[in-house]
Amino acid sequence: MADAKTAGKAAEIGTVISTFEGPSTEKFSFVLSTSSVRRGQFVCCENEQGMLIGHIVDITRANRYFERAESVAEYEKTAPISANFPVTDWEYTVANARALGIFKDNHVLRSTFPAAPGSTVSAVDAGVLKDFLGFVDGGLNIGEIENHRLPATIDMTRLLQKHLAILAMSGAGKSYLASVLIEELLDRKPEKGRLAAIMIDPHGEYLGFKYGEYADRTKVFDGRKVRIAFHKVMPSTLFEFMTELSATQKREVENALYALRAESKEKHVAYGLEDLMARIEDAEIKENIKGPLLAWLSQLRKARLFGEADSPTMKELARPGGLSIIDLSEMDSQKKKQMLVSYFSRRLLRMRKKGKVPPFALFIEEAHNFAPEKAEKGAAISRNVITTITREGRKFGASLCLISQRPVHLSTTALSQCNSNIILRVTNPFDVKHIGESCEGIDEGMLSAMTTLRVGEGLLVGEAVNHPVFVKIRRKKSRNSPKGENLEAMARRYEMGEEKKKEDVEAFI
């Protein structure tokens, strides 16, 4: 651990000054003695409590010679002011810092006493900053702290156990960041504890993992070939798939399923959807109940999601130190996608509770489509299980990472249960407002900064760190997905393909 006294060896960068508003327990200002200081930098000074750590939120420059606009305009008519007056001698720069807390004896304390005017302000020693923010050796390295050459090595438990949300507008680097996180999970050694990583991939953005150095740890499951073992489907799950059923119809389905289950145990033979339909067909049920019920079951059969066994199995999906990708990019029906996510998420949670699968991190891309805040009946099939995992998963080692480009459309319940957030660039005012209301620890200044972040820059806030911090995401090591081409490449490939077809036809003729 870093010793707080080593901070005295860091470069001195200024002196605390008195202003109308401070120094206070919440903020302080200091005049700079060097031009190397930047907004967003962490600084420190000593007070009665110990070492006060601050974060620069703004920097202003002033010069008494240029305070009166009319005087400047008049003097500049004949010659530059600098030609007649020593203007550089009267220029000064002031940094305004937010007081974050006290670092003393390797512990972080709340700041309850202000910095003293005249105190020397220094840059924070890297070791002190690492401990103050809560980074750890051997943590998940997602990048580097802005304005400091300090790796952002986050404790895996703090980041994922109470769930994570990655939020950003389209093209800001959400999938890139998720890939970096997955790399860190796959690179962990068994002695450090390895999670199973499972990715719900609606657009095939993570298929690059099946090539290169992560190929041996990655399995890809084509969503069109994924099957649900019908005999393992609970009645409550089936009713989520068929939201139109009345109470009477649900009761008939439940009775038929219990009867089929009893026969299955006796004969040691699995039953399927066809068996349920046959049982309903033969039952003495009023036609106005039976007809619509069979029609809805027939629609369920047409989805072609059910089989005799789960494919993949839960143990194939959840492997310590492995990545499983459920590729939904070739599926058009959003309802079918939700049904798959609902079933496999629920099964994984149930198996984890029983200790039959390893602790896992379930990544859900386009999470607002799987756990929407507002949706018509039957359009939010997977929302219940997602919110269930956010509430209960931490107790059993079932972690969730929700990735979304439209936070305003993402379930507030699910988002508010994600105790850590990494927010990249967001410009939509409705999304910004929703993030501010749903994510703890974010103030107005941070909300404003979100709109100006560059691609690959993110704000890490919540349980994962002791204080919010801006991070520059590191370069990923995995390959790009073959489905992740830019517009120029797609256009070029299409024309080359058309030209090749034309040449083949001409050669044939």
Structure description:
With 509 residues, the protein is of the alpha/beta class. The chain folds into four domains: 4-133, Elongation Factor Tu (Ef-tu), domain 3; 152-226 and 311-473, 3-Layer(aba) Sandwich (Rossmann fold); 231-304, no CATH class; 481-509. Helix content is 34%, strand content 22%. The protein is built from 17 helices and 20 strands. Strands 9-8-20-19-18-10-17-16-11-15-12 form an eleven-stranded mixed beta sheet. Strand 5 (91-104) and strand 6 (107-109) form a beta hairpin. The protein starts with 11 loop residues before the first strand and ends with a helix.
Give the CATH architecture of the largest domain: 3-Layer(aba) Sandwich
Contiguous uncertain segments of 5+ residues? 1-9
Largest sheet: 11 strands, mixed
Q: Please compute the radius of gyration using only Cα atoms.
A: 29 Å
Total of DSSP H or I helical runs spanning 4+ residues: 17
Q: Which strand-content bin applies to the residues? A: 15-25%
- Class based on secondary structure composition and strand pairing: alpha/beta
Give me the CATH superfamily of the largest domain: P-loop containing nucleotide triphosphate hydrolases
Overall pLDDT confidence = 88
Number of domains: 4
How far is the first residue's CA from the last residue's CA?
77 Å
- Outline, from the CA principal axes? elongated
- CATH class of the largest domain equals Alpha Beta
Indicate the CATH topology of the largest domain.
Answer: Rossmann fold
Number of strands: 20
The neighbouring-strand order within the major sheet is 9-8-20-19-18-10-17-16-11-15-12
The percent of residues in helical segments reads: 25-40%
